[in-house]
Amino acid sequence: KAGVTQTPRYLIKTRGQQVTLSCSPISGHRSVSWYQQTPGQGLQFLFEYFSETQRNKGNFPGRFSGRQFSNSRSEMNVSTLELGDSALYLCATSIGGGYTGELFFGEGSRLTVL
Amino acid sequence: EDQVTQSPEALRLQEGESSSLNCSYTVSGLRGLFWYRQDPGKGPEFLFTLYSAGEEKEKERLKATLTKKESFLHITAPKPEDSATYLCAVPRRAGGGADGLTFGKGTHLIIQP
User: Fold this and answer.
1) For residue A1, is pLDDT > 70?
2) Which of A25, B46, B48, B104 is disulfide-compatible with B6, CB 3.0–4.6 A?
3) Helix and strand tally (H, E) in chain A?
4) Is the CA virtual torsion A68, A59, A21, A82 positive or negative?
5) B19-26 and B10-14 as β-strands: parallel, antiparallel, unpaired?
6) Nearest CA to CA, how far is B76 from chain A (Å)?
7) What is the CA radius of gyration of chain A?
8) Do B96 and A99 touch (CB under 8 A)?
9) For residues B85 and B19, is the Cβ–Cβ distance under 8 A?
10) B1 with B101: CB under 8 angstroms?
11) Measured in whole angstroms, how far is the alpha carbon of residue B34 from the centre of its chain?
12) CB under 8 Å to B19, separation ≥6 — which residues?
């Protein structure tokens, strides 16, 4: 069974640019969450999508956005990049429906902002 | 705001030397506490879910326990392959739906041969 796939794995951008990250969930998983991981703040929840609807959002500015497609694949976008956006962005999926803390994470997209 | 605090931040053990990692939380209406393992360059991997005080879960050399204010991850006779960062997490808020998880900052565990 294929795992969660995130692309790209690594990318370098400059301040002011925007970036789009992609996440393909495990087959049958309809919930997709995004997390930002940094050495200082650890893992922080960005947002969660289920059936193409954003159900919850963390405490991040509006520059961070996402969407989910009908096949459950998800993208997140960060506009007007800042140096502090350098981080590992992790996608986590689950079957969805009710709440579950058993998430399946991808290997992440490591973003460096110069 | 819900808080999750893990200690110690880092722990170095000799192979076979048992120890415990701590996760303390301040959450109203706990709806589960979760343990994950993260290897360098990888995403976290789910280990355990605990729902009520007194509950215990085991997997190989790991055993997770839960009290009303904290959880412990006991590692018995660890091997070098148990080296990883261990994370605990709780749901972000009470209620239904998928609210995301609040993670602790983790314990970086190194097992030396």
Assistant:
1) no
2) B104
3) 0, 11
4) positive
5) unpaired
6) 24
7) 13
8) yes
9) no
10) no
11) 7
12) B11, B13, B74, B75, B78
Check residue A98 and give its pLDDT: 62
Contacts of A42 in chain B (CB under 8 A): 87, 103-106
| A18: CB partners within 8 A, 6+ apart | A77, A78, A79, A80, A81
Name which of B36, B82, B74, B78 is nearest B58 in CA terms: B74
Mutate which of B6, B25, B46, B49 to test chain A, going by most A C-beta atoms within 10 A? B46
B36 Cβ contact list (under 8 Å, min separation 6)? B44, B45, B46, B47, B86, B87, B88, B89, B103
Could you tell me the CA-to-CA distances from A1 to A25, A27, A97, B90 in Å, in that order?
Answer: 11, 8, 21, 27
Instruction: State the best of B27, B50, B99 to mutate against chain A, taking most chain A CBs within 10 Å.
Output: B99
pLDDT band at B1 (very low <50, low <70, confident <90, very high): low
Q: Is B98 within 8 Å of A4 when comparing Cβ atoms?
A: no
The predicted pLDDT at position A55 comes to: 87
Residue type at B83? S
Structure tokens at B27: 């959450």
Does residue B28 carry a pLDDT above 80? no
A53, A54, A68, A99: best to mutate for the B interface, most B CBs within 10 A: A99
